[in-house]
Amino acid sequence: MVLDKPRQPLQLRDVEKPRPAKGQLLVRIATCAVCRTDLHVVDGELPDPKLPLIPGHQIVGCIEEIGEEVNSKFKVGDRVGIPWLGWTDDECTYCRSNRENLCDRARFTGYTIDGGYAEFTVADARFCFHLPDRYNDVEVAPLLCAGLIGYRSYRKTGDARRLGIYGFGNAAHLIAQIALCERRELFVFTRPGDLATQQSAKALGAKWAGGSDEMPPEKLDAAIIFASVGPLVPAALRALAKGGTVVCGGIHMSDIPSFPYADLWEERVITSVANLTRRDGEEFFDIAPRVPVKTKTETFPLEDANVALSRFRSGELKGTAVLVMDAN
Ligand SMILES: [Zn+2]
Ligand SMILES: [Zn+2]
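A: This is the predicted complex of the input protein with zinc ion.
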């Protein structure tokens, strides 16, 4: 499925099967989960995508061919996961200080390089992961971004005991399971009046769930914002105890309104999370099967990618949309 121009439906098209270059794997794709970032790309909210583009960056598949100079971590037939971070130069200041997520020349799967809404893809082997056996191809796909970048956001909250989560979508649902397993107290904020989501957060184990216009019963040590709604930043700040942190977990957010300095004072911090490192992936895929983190999914055949995207956009999905390549 190909994006020719932002704000247009994807086109189902036969494209040439890619060939693995030096350092790359050729992967026959089994599934690819749909991320909110895919919507931002398709809707033209992120600048300068590769065009035409095959979107998708939560890719699960099997290695069909291995390019030259790939280290021995992989063999033909292995199942691999391909995430958002697709390539880095390994030599800029950021890469050399363990911050490859900020690499000046980074390339991103399904954004600046072709991704997984397809039957085959090639990927730089350095950024591919082996996936835990306990998950099947559909279950594991949402872990590759909602899980990984959610996990990076969660780690930025340090050892916060009272943790707030604004926006209880895919990433929040996965990270909440790890937070509860690590005995954090969870406070979940949804759209005002979304009682069904508040109920499901409580059923999962949240200590409190309410609307984003409400104050939690206790001050929070940290809050993660997964919703792309700027006004949630000052709202979350006001819910923090002294020294607390607000982590913005998304790649795109509407503008943040101004707020009094008093809301930030007393060493409160606002930070953001960009992309992921390979280390985030290794840690997350070690911890996820032990919790175990469970995913909720809804599957679609590849050619229904536009349906999956529009149901995501309008909030009609009951779980993470996962495209399945051989559904027919
Ligand atoms: Zn770099
Ligand atoms: Zn993503």
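Helices lie at 36-42, 137-140, 146-155, 170-181, 195-204, 232-238, 278-287, 305-313. The first strand starts at residue 24 and ends at 33.
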